[in-house]
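Entry 14. Ran structure prediction on the chain below.
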Amino acid sequence: MNPADRYSEVFNKYVPSPFVPLITHLLLHSNVHFKIVKERSTKLGDFRPLNKKGKPQITVNGNLNPYAFLITTLHEFAHWQTFEEFGMHVAPHGTEWKQYFSSLIAKIIHHPELPSDLKKALVKSTNNPKASSCNDIHLSRVLRRYDVHEEEEVSLENLPKNTTFVVNSRIFRKGEKRRTRFECKEISTGKMYLVHLLAKVKPIYHDK
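Output, structure tokens:
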């Protein structure tokens, strides 16, 4: 099997099929080592100029839904393109990166297979791309629609105030909103934490 077919076979498992040729083309015409990795709580993807073998490396979390995987992959390839032209002498998410990311998004944004809600969110996002889709609340909300959740799992922002919920095996009670996070009290310790409004949590509706 030639490299193009091999990459396409793999990406078909993670990316909506109409966009597999684009991702395959980017990988074939780069010197990037591309790895699909386990879920990381702190990031969806990552670019490193040099891995242990001395090559640029992109990693993307394998648990992402297909559209989140696609956008994250384009985000990281924009980092590679920026590094190839400017080296380490520009800001990680500065003007140069924003231009490359916007040009990659332009390759998909008018595709007839791209859902209309995601298209609108991307048009808005590319006016001023964030360092991560996680930091773009509107885009992140739209991408979240394509997740496959456990039935009882919801976003924290959708729970009423004072609802008790479980996250990472710890029990909290939802409090006041602070910008993009909610103050939440951990039941066992009484300590207050800030939890992102889009955090996936399991509500305990029977709690008194």
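Residues 3-144 form one domain. Will compare against last week's run tomorrow.
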